[in-house]
Design brief:
CATH topology of the largest domain: 2-methylcitrate dehydratase PrpD
GO molecular function: lyase activity
Pfam family, one: MmgE_PrpD_C
Protein name: 2-methylcitrate dehydratase
Strand content: 5-15%
InterPro entries: MmgE/PrpD_sf, MmgE/PrpD_sf_1, MmgE/PrpD_sf_2, MmgE_PrpD, MmgE_PrpD_C, MmgE_PrpD_N
Shape: globular
Largest sheet: 4 strands, mixed
Order of helices and strands: HHHEEHHHHHHHHHHEHHHHHEHEEHHH
Family: Belongs to the PrpD family.
Oligomer: single chain
Low-confidence stretches: 1-15
Number of domains: 2
CATH superfamily of the largest domain: 2-methylcitrate dehydratase PrpD
CATH class of the largest domain: Mainly Alpha
Length: about 475
């Protein structure tokens, strides 16, 4: 098969100007580790470690176990690829699905604010599965992670918030391109082959915000995207032709998922590689991603930070609270109407999460158990929490994920905090020590303290590994 076929919108004998798809394909094919700046290199290590920790901890959660059972029932999953936190080995596609589901399953995975997307839970599982299978080096793995984040984050940023209001979950829809690009990087595709993989991946984009109504399907969105993106890369390697220019075509991704069909914008004119902006120290999207300090939806984190600051700095306790008024941007404020009958919805619920922060002085995994969700004192606090759209926060979004929080105490005090950007962001980031502590908190209960520390030490210097297989195997049980 000749993948270097003319662009479908080109006139006979001519090639149209490169559009967003070709720009992304050219970037991926040309990317070399030597060209990655130091801020992005360190971010790649940090986000790899953070996502692998979430994968290890999430391996035992219910959605992942359902996936394992389904794979067994289907007769699939036999292979040699390890999945962090699991004992069985799998084929690479099943490993990517399970790894993505694990990574996202506990709401501890990273994200990219301008695109409202969780890139790590899609890119890392696909990349580590293929890197193990193809005996890639640590440097090759990190390069693939950087490339995959670039694809996932930039496409999500170019789609947001239009895609959200259409009901799509960018982690599943934009994420599939991140996995495809990570696979293309590890397979050393040229630009034509990368564009072909993107053309196939576009048909596999999926994920709806219906999870706000309940159920556990949200956990599986990154798993689906990781598997299907990896499949798109492998199909390209084995000759399946796909449409070019798939992001900007009239029937393409941006029109279907982000409203290009309404004429509000021209998909072909998107400057994709600048979508979402950059960190001051890096031109790579991965350097502008956040890492979660709280085990819940990122849209709620600014509110959590404000309440915790009041507790620590003003001496407020849960029993002192008369009312909490939270103003935020519309997408965040929508979480004020989410209930907490299940762990999935509880982690998305502004009232329950803020009540939990007031009761526990934290928001951690153990705070979403059935017992905590039924705790009378916590439930009483939820009735005192009001969430609304704040015009200033809405005007700042998506450039900021801010919150205005006013807490009124029973003795009549009125306390206020404005949080422009929650803790863990690229400009207010967790330290490397904080990343290590989070990893060990998640991995040590599964792998054992000594084993978790040993693999963490190797992950911080992963680019020196000639093959990543032994390091990845050490993350499995």
């Amino acid at each position: 098969m000749n993948l270097a076929t003319p662009h479908p919108t080109a006139a006979a004998g001519q090639r149209s100007a490169p559009g967003p798809t070709a720009a992304l394909a050219g970037f991926t094919a040309a990317l070399r580790w030597e060209a990655v700046d130091q801020a992005a290199r360190q971010a790649a290590r940090r986000h790899l470690i953070d996502t692998l920790g979430a994968m290890v901890a999430g391996a035992g959660q219910a959605a992942t176990q359902s996936g394992q059972a389904a794979l067994r029932a289907a007769g699939a999953g036999q292979g040699r690829v390890p999945v962090p936190g699991m004992a069985p080995r799998y084929d690479a596609l099943s490993a990517a699905w399970l790894g993505g589901t694990s990574a996202h399953g506990l709401e501890l995975d990273d994200g990219y604010r301008p695109g409202s997307v969780h890139p790590g839970a899609v890119v890392v599982p696909a990349a580590v599965a293929l890197a193990f299978l193809r005996e890639s080096s640590g440097e090759e793995l990190l390069r693939a992670v950087v490339a995959g984040y670039e694809a996932c984050c930039r496409i999500a940023a170019a789609s947001h918030p239009r895609a959200r209001w259409r009901g799509f979950h960018n982690t599943g829809t934009a994420g599939v391109f991140g996995a495809a690009v990570a696979g293309a990087s590890l397979l050393r595709f040229d630009a034509a082959a990368v564009e072909n993989a993107l053309g196939t991946a576009a048909s596999y984009a999926a994920g709806l915000f219906t999870f706000l109504a309940g159920g556990d399907v949200k956990r599986t969105h990154p798993g689906h995207a990781a598997r299907e993106g990896l499949m798109a890369a492998l199909l390209t390697e084995h000759g399946l032709p796909a449409p070019r220019g798939v992001l900007e075509l009239k029937e393409g991704f941006f029109s279907a998922y982000a409203g290009g069909d309404t004429g509000d914008f021209d998909p072909a004119g998107i400057d994709l590689m600048r979508a979402g902006g950059d960190h001051p120290d890096s031109g790579f999207a991965i350097a502008n991603c956040y890492i979660k300090p709280h085990a819940c939806c990122r849209h709620i984190h600014a509110g959590i930070d404000a309440v915790l600051a009041m507790m620590q700095e003003d001496g407020v306790a849960a029993e002192d609270v008369e009312q909490v008024d939270i103003g935020s941007y519309a997408i965040a404020a929508a979480h004020g109407a989410v209930g907490w009958s299940e762990m999935t919805t509880a982690q998305m619920s502004f009232p329950f999460v803020i009540a939990t922060a007031l009761r526990q002085g934290r928001v951690s995994l153990q705070d979403f158990s059935a017992a905590h969700r039924a705790d009378p004192a916590t439930l009483a606090l939820t009735d005192r929490i009001r969430v609304a759209v704040d015009p200033g926060c809405e005007a700042d979004y998506p450039n900021k994920r801010s919150a205005q929080v006013t807490l009124t105490t029973r003795d009549g005090r009125s306390l206020h905090r404005y949080v422009p950007e929650p803790f863990g962001g690229a400009r207010n980031r967790l330290s490397d020590e904080g990343i290590s502590t989070k990893f060990l908190d998640l991995a040590a209960p599964v792998l054992g303290t000594a084993a978790a520390q040993a693999v963490l030490d190797r992950l911080w210097t992963i680019e020196t590994e000639k093959t990543v297989g032994p390091v990845l195997a050490a993350l499995a049980r």
